[in-house]
Design goal:
This protein is mainly alpha-helical. The protein contains 16 helices and 3 strands.
């Protein structure tokens, strides 16, 4: 049963008093915009094609958003000490789930990225692992137990390499690039020597090239996508071409709510091509507004670093916001054919339960670490 004692009411009042309300408002705005776009993109036409009820996907999206809001509130309410104490357990559990994907995962269109287990049907472990990966990286780099700075960097490289190996096996190029980029940004933010950073980068690129060379049957799809991206006549680019056409047809003001045709022509458009759907139906004006919201959200989070003295908190915030920003620009890049197809969703806005839950964990952690700390309390 819920306990509405004076102590709990005081805790809630403290949470509301110390939370950054601007960041909270931006997070809620993005989630509710995602609901609105989901209502438009998952039309009854799609439902009929998949033998589902009208707006079946929208209702699922709505349920996941409710779950996400609960997660955000719960995570943002916790003390930092509690998050640090339970971090290794959550990280190991999510890492174990990722490890199980090649073994018992379900395959969809040649990629094995999902688990189908009781209570978690069609679940993508990497979405949950990403925020905990950032927390672990920050903990290693800011550790007072390991005194050798370059040893810390090496440990993070080993951890990153293991996770990237699991992702490449699936295969999942988009998430691999996302984690690798966020790792580089966190190392750069920690003050690493540029020469060492360059060596790490070249080492990872060399490993990637060797994998493609020695395992062409398993990872040849990566070369195929790169070739078809560079030369569209060399491969199948139907989805990308339709997405780009949809963006162009949307113009400045869009074709109107529900009037877009991309969602009916491209499978999984409400996940991988949400940016193009928004462009087609609502035009460049709304796209510009969305970019401003994402950038302002990032600015508000990074602005908090100016007054933050704890290195761990700084690294976590940099890592989390880099995850969101890089994922956003990868998604946009794919939609406008600046990047090869990756299957990356648009944070907060695209349909997908795993993605929404993962974004909720990231949002909850950001709210937790940007709260004002009461002078007379240990809690955040």
């Amino acid at each position: 049963m819920f306990d509405f004692s004076r102590e709990n009411r005081s805790l809630l009042a403290s949470w509301w008093r110390n939370i950054d309300k601007t960041i909270l408002s931006l997070i809620l705005l993005l989630f509710f915009l995602g609901l609105f776009f989901s209502f438009s993109s998952t039309s009854s036409v799609i439902g009929e094609k998949l033998n589902k009820e009208a707006y079946f996907f929208f209702l699922k999206h709505f349920i996941f958003v409710v779950i996400a809001l609960i997660i955000i509130f719960f995570v943002s309410l916790q003390k930092r000490e509690i998050i640090k104490a339970y971090l290794p357990y959550f990280f190991l559990i999510s890492l174990l789930l990722l490890f199980l994907v090649p073994l018992i995962g379900i395959e969809v269109k040649g990629a094995k990225r999902w688990l189908d287990i009781p209570l978690l049907p069609r679940f993508q472990p990497i979405e949950i692992l990403k925020p905990f990966f950032i927390l672990i990286l920050a903990q290693i780099i800011s550790s007072q137990v390991i005194h050798n700075l370059y040893k810390k960097y090496f440990y993070t490289l080993v951890l990153l390499s293991f996770i990237l190996l699991l992702l490449i096996i699936q295969p999942d190029l988009g998430q691999s690039v996302l984690l690798f980029s966020s790792w580089l940004i966190m190392l750069f933010s920690s003050g690493i020597n540029f020469i060492i950073l360059g060596i790490f980068f070249l080492f990872c690129v060399l490993i990637f090239v060797l994998i493609l060379f020695f395992f062409p049957n398993k990872f040849g799809y990566i070369l195929f996508r790169l070739k078809s991206f560079i030369d569209p006549t060399k491969g199948e680019n139907y989805q990308s071409e339709k997405a780009l056409e949809a963006i162009k047809s949307g113009g400045f003001t869009g074709r109107g709510l529900g009037e877009g045709v991309l969602k009916d022509r491209v499978p999984e458009a409400h996940t991988d091509y949400m940016f193009a759907i928004i462009a087609e139906e609502f035009g460049g004006i709304l796209l510009l507004l969305l970019l401003i919201i994402f950038l302002f959200f990032s600015y508000k989070v990074l602005h908090k670093l100016l007054d933050e003295k704890d290195e761990y908190t700084k690294l976590v915030l940099v890592g989390l916001i880099s995850l969101l920003l890089i994922q956003t620009f990868i998604h946009i890049g794919v939609n406008i054919r600046l990047l090869p197809t990756t299957g990356i969703t648009l944070p907060f806005l695209s349909y997908g339960g795993s993605s929404i839950v993962g974004n909720a964990i990231i949002a909850g952690l950001i709210l937790n670490l940007t709260k004002k700390i009461p002078l007379n309390q240990d809690s955040l």
